[in-house]
Amino acid sequence: MLLDREQELRDRHGISFRITGIATRSLGCIANPSGLDPNSYVERAPSPANGRKSDRELTSVRDWLSAAQADILFEATSLNVETGQPAIDHIRAALEHGAHAITANKGPIVHAYRELRDLAAAKGKRFLFESTVMDGVPIFSFFHEMPTIHLQGFHGILNSTTNVILSEMEKGLSFDEALKKAQQLGIAETDATHDIDGWDAAVKTAALVTVLMDMPVKLEDIAREGIRDLTTNALRNGRRDGWPFKLVCRAQRVGDGVRASVVPEKVLSTSPMGKISGASSYIYFETDIFPGLAITEENPGVYATAYGMLADFVRAVSK
Question: What is the pTM of this model?
Answer without folding.
Answer: 0.92
